[in-house]
Amino acid sequence: MDLPQRLADCLCERLPANKVACVHALQADWLAGRVAPDIDIERAPIDHPGQPDQPALIPPQQVPRRRADTVAGRAALVHALAHIEFNAINLALDAAHRFAGMPPAYYADWLRVADEEALHFDLLNAHLATLGHTYGNFPAHNGLWEMALKTAHDPLVRMALVPRVLEARGLDATPLIVNKLKAAQDQHMVEILGVIERDEIGHVAIGSHWFAYLCQARGLEPEATFRQLLVEYDAPPLKPPFNLEARRKAGFSEPELDWLSQL
To answer: pTM value?
Structure first.
């Protein structure tokens, strides 16, 4: 099949195991040259990708706080991270499916991101099982996908506000979570987060690259445009402490890092 149809098939898969398998198969076929790119074909967007019946989706402010100093609290924390990764699979697939006419490297990048997000989900769900739970056992919110819909009209806005805001916030949070897990002596989860942080730096870097590419194509200054979009789209607030070294590796410029340091 062509790439848009394969992406649509993966987006529409409801069950996590099926979605993960679909993504891994798509990436393998893409790398083997078995998928027709058809990157210029306009396609009907998929505004509601497949999701399992559980977890129950509730407003973000109603999601209970998650602690790492009890097994139940740690399970809730791991579940929250698994939910982020499940949504991240859909976000990466959507970035490739929704926006036609980008360079071929753009689609290769987002297929790789989807494949790595699927791996992250599996790692977290397997660890969750060791804590006596599975994905769907705790309530969650739909904030990540709501941002996908908010940025659905323009790949420049998507690159700015999903990788460079939401995923970059994950880079900021990782050291704090790692410290909590070390205190709880959950070394395996610390190792999983090491894999995720390494890959997520690459994902934010991909977003930074394509944001810069689109700014250049439209004659826009990237740093001023990024700040303008934060305000225009009421993006989640950028709160310290910032993981400046991870953000540097992920394509944030020194002036941007200086600006963040003053927030």
So the answer is: 0.96
